[in-house]
Each structure stands twice: as C-alpha cells, then as structure tokens.
Amino acid sequence: MSEEIKPVVNETADVAKQEQEIKEAPVNYGEKTLAELSGLFQQLKESEDRMKRSKEAEALKSAFYKRLSREKAEAGEDAAVEEPDDNTPVEDATVPMQSGPVSPFAAIEAGFKSLYMEYKKERAEFNKEQDAQREENLQKKQAIIEELKALVEEPGDMKDAFPKFRDIQNRWREVGPVPQQNFRDVNDTYQLHVTKFYDLVDINRELRDLDFKKNLEAKTAFCEQAEALGQDEDVVEAFKELQKLHEQWKDLGPVAKEFRDSIWERFRAATSVINKRYQAHFEGLKEQQAQNLEAKQALCEEVEAIADKEITSSTEWNALSKQIEEIQARWRTIGFATRKENQKVYDRFRAACDKFFERKRASFTEFKDSMNANLEKKMAIIAEAESLKDSTDWKATSDRFIELQKEWKEIGAVPRKKSEQIWKRFRAACDAFFTARDNRPDGPGSLSANLAAKKALIEAVKAYAPADAEADAAAAKDFAANWNEIGFVPFKEKDKVQAEYREAMQAKFPDFGGRRHERGGSRGAERRPLTEKDMLKEQFNALQQEIQTYENNIGFFGLSKGAEKLKAQMQERINAAKAKLEDLKAQIRAKEQEETQE
Fold this sequence. Notes:
With 598 residues, this protein is mainly alpha-helical. The chain contains 19 helices and no strands. The chain starts with 5 loop residues before the first helix and ends with a helix.
C-alpha cells in the first residue's frame, strides 16, 4: 500500500486559497505624488527580485495614470490618458504629440511610460525564458519517468537497479518546475512508478529496508521541523517554510509499511497546527480590517457632512480646512480595510475631500472677484475725491466728501496688496480738501476765520464804553449772541479764546453771567439776556457735538493700518473734551445751586 500524499496537498492548498482571499491589502499608492510613483517604479525596476513583483508594478502603473488624469483635470487640461496595457506594443515608449502648448505633464508621463515599457519588455523576455525552461523541464521529467517505468518493468538484478533508481530520484529533484497545467499529472505518474518499484515482489529486501530506513529518517526530520514551526511566533513565515517541507516530502520515497500511517499522521498533525494558527492569524487580520473599514467609513461621513455644509465666510472655510486636515491625519493612522473594500472606501474619502476643496477654491475665486469689484468701486470714489480736492465750494464739497467717506466704509474688502495703497490715495484727497478749507485765512466758516472773528469780537468788547444799565444789558446780549453765532475754532485755541472772552465780558459787564432783574423796553421784551449758566449750557452742547464728530472721524481712520498715530491724537482730543464736559457739568450745577440760594 502506497503513502497518501493527496490529503496534504489539498489541505495546504485550501489554506493558501484562504490566504489569497484575506491577504493584506497592498500598499495604498493613492496618496503618492507623480514623482513619488515614478521613483517607486524606478526602485522596483532596479531590484533583484523585480521579475517576481509584476503585480506591484501593475498597481504602481494604475495609480500613476489615475493620479495623472486627476491632476490634468485640476489643471484645466484634457483628463484623458492613454494607459499602456497588455495590448500595447512593447516597442511603444512614447507619448502622443499634442497640438498647441506643451503640457507640463508630458515629460512626466513620457518618463514613466518609458520605465514601464522597458520593464514590460524585460518581463516579457523573462516569462518567455521561464515558459521555455518549464517546457524543457517537462520533457526532462517525462524522460525520467520513462526511465523509471523501464526500470520497474525490467528491474534485473536489484543490486544494479537500486543505484539506477537513486540516480533517477536525484535527477528528478534537480529538475526545476514544469508548466502548471502539467504539474499534477507528471508528479502523480512519477510517484506511481516509484511505489511500483518499491513494491516489486522480487525486490532485494536488504536494499529496500535500507532505503525505507533512510526515507523514515528524512521524514522524521521533516516532522520535527514542522513541529518546531508550530511554535514559531512568525506565523506567516512558518507557513511558507511548511510549504517547502511539503514539496520535499513529495519527492521522498515511501517508508516501511508499518511506519507509513504513523509517520504520515505525525506530519499531518504538525501541518494542521500550523494551518490552524495561520488561519486564525488571517481571521484576526480580517476582523481588524473590518474594524478599519468601519473607522474609515465614519471619517468619510464626517468629511461628506463638511463638504455639504453651507459656508459663508473665509474664516469658516479656513477653520473647516484645518478640520479636514486633522481628519486626513487620523485616516493615515488607520490600517488597511478588507482587500475588496479598501480602494472603494479610499475613493469615497478622496471624493469627499476633493469636493470640499473644489468648493473652497470656487468660493475664494468668487470672493476674489467680489474684492476686485469692490476695488473698482473704491477707485471710482478715489477718482471723484481727487477731482474735488481742489474745489473752493466749501459747503457743497464738504458734504460730498462726507458722503464719499460713508460710501467707502460701506464697500466690502479689496485685495490685501491694494488696500493700503488706495486708502492712502483717498485719505490724501480728503486731507488735501479739508486742510485747504480749514486753513484758508479769510474764508467764512473756516476754523481760522472763526478764530479771527472771535478775537475781533473780544477786542470790540474791550473797546466798549459803558453807558446806562439798559444800554449795557442790550450790548452784553448782542455780544453774547454774536459770539455764539461764530462757529468752531482750532481745538488748541478754544479754551484760551473762551477765557479771554469771559474775562472781557466780566470787565465791561460786571453783572454778566449773574442773575438779572427783569428789564423793560422793547428789546428786553423781545429777548432775555443770556446768563452765564446759559452760556455754559451752550458750551456744553457744542462740546458734545465736537465729541460726536471726533468719534465719527476715529471710526473712519480705523479703515487704515497706517492711521494709528492719527487715531491716537484724535483719542486724546476726545478724552480732553470729555474731561471738559464734566467740568462744564459741575459749573452748571454750581450756577443752579446759586440761583436756588438766591
């Protein structure tokens, strides 16, 4: 009875099939750049084991052309690419000529295609040589089988037959692999004749027993090796070594009949341990890959929700961009998903990310167009301001400049590199007009003119010759009315000129500011003379208006980065005016208390 080899082959084949089904996913090339993919292919092409890495080469090629198509589309070019395949002539290593401007991707594509076609040509030659060698090996093994068959049919003297048989076995083991479709048939035929040789009735028992003994020693060693592999921590490597033992086991002859079942059971038991550990390893890997798939699907949902979100500001766009970058970093920490789903979930994740960043790009393009439109509006305001800056129609032009300033503030943002430049032009035009208006020496309504008018009025008060009480009261009332009708003076002169006016009025009209008795006459009936409290209130109201004007101006200055100094000066004026306002409040309250006491 011959040994049963078939169950071992079937068992290991089943496990190998499971390995193929749940094999770890290949390297994900989807995140590599074109340059990185070309570099990886160059390394593969120069490696010693390059002929065994054809699947890796095809994966690199596929990733390269997918990336190339995507980048061409993003650059606004035709996304179509001509990816070489098995039907592409090996001699074709060129990229089709393009009409119009040369694409920046042309050289990259040509370089990669040249590498790939060189590799394909080399592999084609390698495969051709391998096929020829396998055919040659098949012929050699068939010839050896014929020799073995002849030896079995006419063994002759066993002393001579055994050396021939040993020579046949050695030569059989030295011959390399045969075509896959012929392997089982030629191997089974060989084993059949080996068994027949051993089972010859007239075989020399001494030689046979010696051969059985050697075979038993070899198979026992195989069992020991297999049992040791069952304890190896590297389950995958142990399984690979087991396959080698199986190949060597098949090439050995039988052992004595009384040991055949036991040695086989021992070897099969060791094989089973390794197979179960190997299968458990990949079952665990499969479970982990399923968990990775769930984690990646959750990240896809996060990005898809962000990509569909309504976003209204650049700040929100930038914040969400950082959020997606964080999600992408988390993605890279997750291992591969199942082989079947890994590429699908990556494509889904990439599509969601691309959707978000395409929307962001479109939004910023729209925002840029809006800023350019705002720039045109502000340039139109600048043109009008510069055309008005030399105008002497002070009132109408002042009003128009105030309107232009309001319009300027209502217009949105402009490109950053233009913002400061156009602001300085507009500010210069405004300053040119208002400086000319306020500093004209004889212009009615200007601060300088108002100051001159108030000084003239003070001199008139000083020059007044007192008369009777009624005439003095009327004169005081007229002086006060004229003083209040004169507009603002330069801020730094305000307190000084006000003090001079009060001193002059007190000198000429001692009752000025005090409580007056009812005066007769037509003028007295028309209007009661202003008291000092009344004048304080008028100063209070005027000062409030000044503060409001200053605060409006400081808001306007805030549009310019270079206006910090002006803003600081204006704030000092506001603070001083508010302090003065509190002082006036105190004076008014004091006058009211005096009137109550009287």
